[in-house]
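Curious: explain these tokens?
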Amino acid sequence: MAEIQAWRRGFSKMGLKPTQYRCASEALLRRFRQEGSLPRLHPLVDLCNAISIAFAIPVAVFDLSKISGNIEVRHASGSESYLTFSGEVEHPEAREVIFADAAGQAHARRWTNRQSGLSAMRDDTHSVLIVAEALHGSAASDVPKLIDTIAAELAAIWSIEVRQGVLSSSSPRFDLSSAMNLQLQQKQD
């Protein structure tokens, strides 16, 4: 699959073994192929996992209340903290590509390989950031389709308003504070 091959090339360029560290969508596809199903985690995560499999594009769901300030994809300094799902604290290696916030928390390691237990979706989560990334040739048209699919499903299932955007080198920011303000307004109404 072109979508997976592009991530494997990207991981190789980062110095990672692409069959040891797989992007999230490849890991989901492998698990689904081997087991015939995926574990049920949370309705929103299950929905995003199904869409990730359908598009072969990694999708992550972050609990916005666990993110300090903005989140950015960048190289680690090595001082960031990453909370595993088992509760252990790790420190990403310097130059590793991570999702980091203003407090030095790493919310994902090895770019799209592993999400942090800190910002994982839980039953008490009220506001989320859903991120989809792709590197393959038709990513510029496939990612907006994936985002539209998620937005349509969220509106149909939960009747919620979704703010969405596509980031690029010419438009590298998505204002999380506006997304949080929208969520707060919805809770107050």
